[in-house]
Amino acid sequence: MHLSSYTDYALRLLMYVAVRNDGLPTISEVAQVYGISKNHLMKVAHQLGLGGYLETVRGRNGGLRLGRPADQIRIGDVIRYTEQDMAIVECMAAPYGGPSACRLSPACTLRSALREALEAFLAVLDGYTLEDIVHQRQSVATLLGLPVPPPVPLPERTGSP
């Protein structure tokens, strides 16, 4: 399976915003750091805003911030939201029993096997949040050329060890 550049940019944008906690990063800033098209990134940011993943702050000191805490943004959900076509092969896009370009469709079980594999792929990604992906904030910030953020405090444990 191959994720689109659009989804790749969406995930990288969310990671950048999650790590950059010293202000509101701009689309121009993120585009420059990743070396990607500002116009394309604007479309991605807009869609992520519509989905509640990002908030945009307009004005002179505006920029982007997460629309919800990083530990509430599931990676599988982001992929489902940004991927236009999750069909691994052409016959997966056709309705069951509908016309397909493949002659084998009426007797083939590959379609159901691939659907099961896709569901497993997404189930694994549902087990990860944006927080899980950027939990090494200091390393990620360094790689992005950002000031190193302070470590995020771990939640206190209750009970005895």
What is Rg?
Answer: 19 Å
From the spread of the alpha carbons, the general shape counts as elongated
Biggest sheet strand order reads: 1-2
Give the mean pLDDT: 85
Strand portion: under 5%
Main sheet overview: 2 strands, antiparallel
How many strands appear in the DSSP assignment?
2
What is the rounded distance between the termini?
Answer: 43 Å
Structural class given helices, strands, pairing? mainly alpha
Helix content estimate: 40-55%
Q: Point out poorly predicted stretches.
A: none
Element-by-element helix/strand order = HHHEEHHHHH
Helix count equals 8
Assembly state (oligomeric): single chain
Structure description:
Helices cover 48% and strands 5% of the residues. The protein contains 8 helices and 2 strands. Strands 1-2 form a two-stranded antiparallel ribbon. The longest helix is centred in the last third of the chain and has 17 residues, at 110-126.
Which SSEs are present, and which pair or pack?
Blueprint lengths: L4 H15 L7 H8 L3 H13 L3 E4 L5 E4 L8 H8 L7 H4 L16 H17 L3 H4 L3 H8 L17
Helix pairs in contact: 1-3, 1-4, 2-3, 4-6
Q: Gist?
A:
The protein has 161 residues and is mainly alpha-helical. It is built from 8 helices and 2 strands; from the N terminus they run H-H-H-E-E-H-H-H-H-H. The longest helix has 17 residues, at 110-126.
Keywords:
two-stranded antiparallel sheet; 161 residues; 8 helices; 48% helix; mainly alpha
